[in-house]
Design goal:
Length: about 375
């Protein structure tokens, strides 16, 4: 049973694309609500930061999809080198161009448009750019040890959400090295040392991190969702019962969020959300649903540029608020919503949409 590959059906793939697309829009809407002060509270503990829920969904999906992709490639010669190329190209095809765009855009804003009120002057420099390039923003080890605190690097300029990407990157590296440990041709103790080094960020996030606490647990919940599906757990449950279970879990999720001061970075919130994802995939596996082709195309396209949207939206919304102000809040929020989506789609068309071409080029050139 453990050797059987999990094969997602077309319906399941569409459902996952929809969830991914929605999560990126939730992050955008959540940050917009905060920037335009549409949903705020005098008590910070009671602010409804739904963008954190979008990030939480992203992490669960990431853990699931990386596990799904990696375990389905374990047979044959697939090793960490292949895994690294896959992950590097998928992430950096969007991340590197947008990182450069954020740097140039912020420099222009600081120099010409908002020289007196640009809020991220201290994080707009070459050191921070290089630190972000190597995924060292908010690096847990720099914070954990007293004499390394001076090395701390924040997210670049207006790219404030980039810290979540760095955290996720180190989860990728640890997971890939661990799963492909036996397929890597190095001395055992060298491999073990590398594993220990790569485990630093996940361990520190799970045990000490005050920011995004429990995101490490939440990422690995996606892995456990994969294991359950791989072993065909829940496949015997009828569609009507699955719908009832999902409905009850959504109710529990709402109750937990409201009873916990809207804190989405909470393990129980993550566990319930991961459970909803699991039963949703079970519902769509082996059950074909008739969906309009145009709607499927829209869902797929929106999902495909969701990563670019996540990377750039904060810079755009923050600039709009600082430059144009908060008049006509709802109208401004609608304008920035469409502006962010259009720009993300345009950028993705020349970057992350072409990641497979770049990946195949690297594989061919370096015979990987």
């Amino acid at each position: 049973m453990m050797n059987d590959k999990l094969k997602l059906t077309n319906s399941s793939s569409i459902a996952l694309d929809l969830i991914r697309a929605c999560s990126s829009q939730i992050v955008l809407i959540g940050h917009s609500l905060s920037f335009f002060e549409i949903v705020t509270s005098n008590d910070e503990k009671n602010n409804l930061l739904i963008q954190n829920f979008g990030v939480l969904i992203f992490y669960i999906l990431s853990g699931f999809l990386i596990s799904y992709s990696t375990f389905n490639k374990l047979e044959g010669s697939y090793n960490f080198k292949n895994y690294f190329v896959d992950r590097f190209v998928r992430i950096y095809s969007a991340y590197l161009p947008i990182l450069i765009l954020i740097f140039l855009f912020d420099f222009f804003v600081f120099s010409f448009l908002l020289p007196q009120s640009y809020p991220h002057f201290e994080s707009l420099n070459l050191k921070t750019f290089l630190g972000n390039l190597f995924m060292l923003q908010d690096f847990q080890l720099f914070k954990a040890i007293e004499f390394t605190k001076s090395l701390h690097i924040s997210s670049l300029g207006s790219g404030r959400p980039l810290w979540t990407l760095a955290l996720e990157w180190w989860f990728y590296m640890f997971f890939g090295w661990f799963v492909l440990f036996d397929k890597t041709k190095l001395n055992f103790y060298v491999k073990l040392l590398i594993l220990i080094v790569l485990s630093i960020v996940p361990i520190l996030n799970i045990t000490f991190s005050p920011r995004g606490n429990c995101l490490g647990f939440i990422w690995f919940l996606g892995f456990f969702v994969f294991l359950l599906l791989k072993n065909k757990i829940g496949q015997e449950i009828t569609a009507s019962k699955l719908k009832i279970i999902i409905f009850v879990l959504i109710g529990l999720l709402i109750l937990r969020v409201f009873s916990n001061h809207y804190d989405f970075y909470d393990f129980r919130v993550g566990f319930i959300t991961a459970s909803i994802l699991f039963f949703t995939i079970v519902l769509f596996q082996n059950r074909e649903f008739l969906i309009n082709n145009k709607l499927v195309t829209l869902i797929k396209k929106t999902s495909d540029y969701s990563f670019s949207l996540y990377l750039i939206h904060y810079s755009i919304v923050e600039f709009y608020v600082n430059y144009f102000g908060k008049e006509n809040k709802l109208l401004s929020m609608i304008i920035t919503f469409f502006l962010c989506n259009i720009l993300a789609l345009l950028i993705a068309n020349y970057t992350e949409f072409r990641h497979k071409i770049v990946r195949n080029f690297i594989r061919k050139k370096y015979k990987i």
